[in-house]
Amino acid sequence: EAGRCIIDKALKQLPVQVEAKGFLEIGSPKNTVVTFCADKGYDLIVMGSRGLGAIEQLVLGSVSSYVLYHSACPVMVVK
After folding, report:
1. For the chain, what is the domain count?
2. Assuming Cys at both sites, which of 18, 22, 32, 76 could form a disulfide with 14, CB separation 3.0 to 4.6 Å?
3. Per residue in 7-33, pLDDT tens?
4. Closest CA relative to residue 57, chosen from 34, 77, 32, 72
């Protein structure tokens, strides 16, 4: 329920001319993004980056880095 509210709020903030859909999936973000986008046949993934430092990224990993290297389609990471 909370996840759906966050998605709906984000979609309402987009300009009318921007076509977007919100999806709610359960699972590891790294694997879920890669698998979901491959299954849907998307041409491009656009995602944000938290800007972790080198040590934090080494310990925690990075969803954007994982998706960048494992996705079948191009990935644009926005900071």
Report:
1. 1
2. 18
3. 999 999 999 899 888 999 999 999 999
4. 77
